[in-house]
Amino acid sequence: MKSDFYDLDGFLKGKSSLNEIELNLLGNLKGKSVLHLQCHFGQDSISLGRLGAEVTGVDFSDKAIDRAKELAKTSKSNTSFICCDIYDLPKHLNTKFDIVFTSYGTIGWLPDLDKWGQIVSRFLKPNGKFVFVEFHPVVWMFDDDFDQIAYNYLNSGEIIEIQEGTYADKNADIKQEYIMWNHGISEVVNNLIKNNIEICSLDEYDYSPYNCFNKTVEFEPKKYRIDHLDHKIPMVYAIVGSKKGS
User: Fold this and answer.
1) Residue-wise pLDDT tens digits, 42-76
2) Sheet harboring 197-205: ordered strands across?
3) What digits encode the pLDDT tens for the residues 192-220?
4) CA-to-CA distance for 22 and 103, rounded, in angstroms?
């Protein structure tokens, strides 16, 4: 929370943590109910609330949710938070929302996208809107320095690695094992379609709004590319979907 990456001071003074990509896709949020899946410590959830939405954030990290509740109180936000595995959310929540939102570094931690698609569909109202922004699976094919292809584009099972530092603070005194999964775009799209989500748009972007990778260059404010790859690879993609049915 205290890293420059999250700019907590700026956030508490009113700066939004949301990016141009998702703001354009979300549209007017006044009076809308929003479910934010994998909300971390709540900055984006509270930013959505500042735009007039009634927001519920969900994350499985008890420490993150504790911080989110503290941040909501400090910033005088009425955003609410639930601590649970999102797969278990039906045990904790029985509400349907106008919008389900999730973004940046979320589905890589999920082994089963069918179950994820079920959750998205379960909590959307009929004709409700799903907004999803994520780092492009092409990015996850590379090694940390983007020098060579090191991983499969398609999901070939769990990836277990050791990380030192964090994306928010590369020099942090942290060393931990983590497990993640790569998900190709067809896997994402087909599991949404399977669960009654109609795909309205699919867009790809040749930059990241976050400086969370190695060897980056900021070519425009808040737009980062891998220096030696320039605009040659997609770095982010976004899906907007709609819940079919009445």
Assistant:
1) 999 999 999 999 999 999 999 999 999 999 999 99
2) 80-83, 54-59, 33-37, 97-103, 124-135, 236-243, 197-205
3) 999 999 999 999 999 999 999 999 999 99
4) 8
**How many CB atoms lie under 10 A from the CB of residue 123?**
25
Q: Which of 218, 186, 209, 212 is nearest to 199 (CA)?
A: 186
Alpha helix ranges (H) inside 51-154: 62-74, 113-122
Q: How far is CA 204 from CA 94, 108, 140, 208, 236, in A?
A: 33, 18, 15, 11, 6
Determine the Cα–Cα distance for residues 99 and 79; give it in Å rounded to an integer. Answer: 15
Question: What's the whole-model pTM score?
Answer: 0.93
Please give the structure tokens belonging to residue 41: 């410590």
Domains delineated in the chain: 8-136+184-212+234-243 (3.40.50.150)
Q: Distance between terminal CA atoms of the chain?
A: 42
User: What are residue 202's DSSP bridge partners?
Assistant: 239
Q: Are 72 and 54 in contact (CB under 8 A)?
A: no
What value, to the nearest 5°, has the Cα angle with vertex 96 and ends 137 and 180?
A: 25
Q: Which two tokens stand for residue 8?
A: 């907590």
